[in-house]
């Protein structure tokens, strides 16, 4: 299924290296100040609809909200939040320089969704199966793109990498050439394979 394939490909992006700091102590202080000025999220998301998600919600926030939806019996909202978390994770791999940090998304997924019981797992699987139709995938792509790029600083990912130990936690941990407005629709397209789904929809309409 396309969304599931996208989840497995979250770590597949490549990055350019950021510049090294000129003065270690001064740069360390600046990076810490920069990080502290960019909170990940002011409050928990809760079980919200896709269109009501805060642009400050990190993938971890979204996975926790998705699990909350599952506990409340809303597998469709749980699915949507889980997938948005995956897309935002893919978006973040396009801007976080340290490749070893990218595994933060998969680690969070396994931690939050690994202990699902059989009933909730089946509910989520059933909700995911509704996106196997190519037209449904296109609709989801459009919803995701319409949300726009997230606005949080990806400390959750940066902290997961080996370079965090060397204090690369501020702006220098990000690709300086990264363009969020261009990267967001590309992340959505790659994650869901939107172009491939659209081609199959068009082919079916032409028959």
Topology diagram in text:
Blueprint: H1 2-8, H2 24-36, H3 59-71, H4 75-93, H5 104-113, H6 118-129, H7 134-147, H8 155-158, H9 180-192, H10 194-206
Tags for this entry?
mainly alpha, 0% strand, disordered N terminus
Can you walk through the features of this model?
The longest helix has 19 residues. The chain is built from 10 helices and no strands. It has 207 residues and is an all-alpha fold. It is globular and about 55 Å long. 57% of the residues lie in helices and 0% in strands. α4 packs across α9, α7 packs antiparallel against α9 and α7 packs across α10.
Distance between the termini: 23 Å
Q: Specify the helix fraction band.
A: 55-70%
Shape: globular
Residue stretches low in confidence (pLDDT < 50, at least 5 long) are: 1-42
Secondary-structure-derived class:
mainly alpha
Largest β-sheet summary: none
The H-and-E topology, N to C, reads as HHHHHHHHHH
SS elements, strand count:
0
């Amino acid at each position: 299924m396309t969304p599931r394939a996208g989840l497995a490909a979250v770590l597949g992006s490549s990055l350019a290296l950021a510049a090294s700091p000129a003065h270690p102590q001064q740069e360390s202080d600046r990076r810490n100040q920069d990080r502290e000025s960019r909170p990940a999220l002011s409050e928990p998301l809760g079980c919200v609809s896709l269109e009501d998600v805060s642009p400050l919600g990190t993938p971890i926030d979204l996975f926790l909200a998705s699990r909350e939806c599952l506990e409340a019996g809303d597998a469709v909202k749980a699915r949507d939040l889980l997938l948005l978390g995956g897309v935002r994770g893919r978006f973040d791999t396009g801007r976080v320089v340290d490749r070893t940090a990218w595994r933060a998304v998969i680690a969070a997924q396994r931690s939050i969704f690994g202990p699902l019981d059989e009933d909730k797992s089946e509910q989520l699987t059933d909700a995911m199966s509704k996106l196997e139709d190519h037209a449904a995938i296109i609709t989801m792509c459009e919803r995701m793109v319409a949300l726009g790029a997230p606005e949080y600083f990806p400390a959750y990912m940066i902290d997961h990498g080996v370079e965090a130990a060397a204090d690369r936690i501020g702006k220098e941990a990000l690709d300086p050439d990264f363009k969020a407005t261009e990267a967001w629709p590309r992340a959505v397209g790659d994650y869901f394979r939107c172009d491939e789904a659209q081609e199959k929809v068009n082919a079916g309409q032409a028959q």
